[in-house]
UniProtKB/TrEMBL annotation:
Protein name: Multidrug resistance protein Stp
Bilayer disposition of the protein: Multi-pass membrane protein
Source species of the chain: Actinomadura macrotermitis
Annotated Gene3D superfamilies: MFS general substrate transporter like domains, Multidrug resistance protein D
Keywords noted in UniProt: Membrane, Transmembrane, Transmembrane helix
One CC-aspect GO term: plasma membrane
Record carries keyword Transmembrane: yes
Gene name of this polypeptide: stp_23
Compartments where located: Cell membrane
GO molecular function, one term: transmembrane transporter activity
Domain Major facilitator superfamily (MFS) profile: 22-464
Pfam families, A to Z: MFS_1
Superkingdom of origin organism: Bacteria
Membrane-spanning residues: 20-44, 56-76, 88-107, 113-134, 146-171, 177-200, 212-231, 237-255, 275-296, 308-327, 339-358, 364-388, 400-422, 442-462
């Protein structure tokens, strides 16, 4: 009898632990996919030299991944609803690892661009399933904790790209150079694949037929909206792309309203909570992406740090983000988070304007930690706000919409803040002959723009 009781206890404990083991597996893949969106930026100069590529070609190395990833997210989420989230997640991991190997082995710039597009499409299949798996596996407070862990993973991966890329290039293991930033995905992906295969349970949503018309229009709309920003062709081109993208989005909405099985159920966008959450996502992630960009410019082009040194300055921001994401439910929320973000950004502005170059790093570190804490307090409940009340049948579509909004915000933040930085600077960042005072002025102006976005985040998140 004792043996039976013990065995039942162990079985119950294993069943209780299984969702958390599954969470660890899918978050490992999440970290890998989000990290890869930024880690390549540090390696671009090395890629350009080694493959004798033009500047336009190496821009497509980053742009190809971002564009394919964003365009495929909603469709990837719907595929999980129809064919099984576990199945599509595992398929996405395998494809991502294979595409990473193709990137590492690419002999020419066109081959690398093609592999990066495939890698982005694989991420679009893999990553929307994560939020659906969490929605299916957890309820109540456990779901809130799981979403906080997800927010921490995404935030850390977003910030860690520069540090990881700089470290891998500095290490130059086996003389691999830039190829190591892709090969690092192979062991991470293998562990995630095995762990998820053992722990993640299958789930499905609405058995809808593929919405080819909707998928095509959405792909065109997102391409028009995101391609000009990621290629950094200037504000007029970005404005033209934005206009075309909005017109295509309107056509997409009209088509979706008439579809029996739409790619994006319009009932999702009829919910005030989801719309408010998506507006908050757009303001929050656009501000974050813009801040990371202007800080990287200031640290590397202004203060003269190398990529590894710049990445190390980002580390406290990432640590603050991760800790606050996990503790956000107990110690605050978006309102307090935006206040901390604003205080940290105001402090950064004062340091940039008043401190000598040699003293800035030491003074910036605690302020960046405060910014990271504020960002983490916003990010953790924000995901839950967007997904709360979503029908499980629409979990894949909702997750795809959320991640797509994040990508749109990232691209817009980089494009607009980057363009403003270059305009105030008067030349391309990194150009010879630009004085330190020029970087000081450009960083100060763009930090004010990020402060405005933080205020918008607070207003959107605080509305009921």
């Amino acid at each position: 009898m004792t043996t039976v009781i013990i065995n039942r206890s162990r079985a119950a404990g294993g069943a209780a632990a299984r969702p958390w083991a599954a969470l660890a597996a899918v978050l490992l893949a999440t970290f890998m996919g989000v990290l890869d969106a930024g880690i390549v930026t540090v390696a671009v100069p090395s890629v350009q030299r080694d493959l004798h590529a033009s500047f336009g070609a190496v821009q497509f190395v980053a742009a190809g991944y971002a564009l394919a990833y964003a365009v495929g997210l909603v469709t990837g989420g719907r595929l999980g609803d129809r064919y099984g989230r576990r199945r599509m997640f595992l398929t996405g991991v395998v494809l991502f690892v294979l595409a990473s190997l193709a990137c590492a082995a690419a002999p020419t710039a066109p081959a690398l661009i093609a592999a990066r597009v495939l890698q982005g499409l694989a991420a679009a299949v893999m990553l929307p399933q994560v939020l659906s798996i969490i929605q299916h596996a957890f309820t109540g407070q456990a779901r809130a904790t799981a979403l906080a862990c997800y927010g921490a993973a995404v935030g850390l991966a977003s910030i860690a790209g520069q540090l990881a890329g700089g470290a891998l290039l500095a290490w130059d293991a086996l003389g691999l150079g830039w190829r190591a930033v892709f090969l690092v995905n192979v062991p991470i992906g293998a562990v995630a694949l095995v762990a998820a295969g053992l722990t993640v349970r299958e789930s499905r949503g609405a058995q809808a037929r593929p919405d080819l018309a909707g998928a095509g229009l959405l792909a065109l709309a997102l391409t028009a909206l995101l391609l000009p920003p990621v290629l950094e062709r200037g504000l007029p081109v970005v404005a033209a792309g934005t206009g075309a993208g909005l017109a295509l989005f309107a056509a997409f909405a009209l088509v979706e309203r008439r579809q029996a099985d739409p790619l994006v159920p319009m009932r999702l966008l009829a919910q005030r909570r989801i719309v408010r959450g998506l507006l908050t996502v757009l303001a929050f992630y656009a501000g974050n992406a813009g801040f990371f960009l202007l800080l990287a410019y200031h640290l590397q082009a202004g203060l003269g740090l190398d990529p590894l040194g710049s990445g190390l300055v980002f580390a406290p921001l990432g640590a603050g983000f991760a800790v606050a994401s996990l503790a956000g439910r107990r110690h605050g929320g978006p309102a307090r988070g935006t206040v901390l973000m604003a205080i940290g950004l105001a402090g950064v502005l004062l340091v940039v304007l008043s401190a000598p170059a040699g003293d800035q790093i030491g003074r910036l570190l605690p302020l960046l930690t405060l910014c990271g804490v504020g960002q983490g307090l916003v990010a953790a409940p924000l995901i839950g706000t967007v997904l709360a009340g979503v029908d499980p049948a629409d979990a894949g579509a909702a997750g795809g919409v959320l991640l797509t909004a994040t990508q749109v915000a990232n691209a817009a933040g980089v494009a607009l803040i980057g363009a403003l930085f270059a305009r105030v600077l008067g030349s391309a960042p990194g150009s010879p002959g630009v004085p330190f005072t020029g970087y000081t002025h450009a960083t100060a102006v763009t930090t004010v723009a990020v402060l405005v976005l933080a205020a918008v985040t607070g207003l959107c998140a605080g509305r009921r």
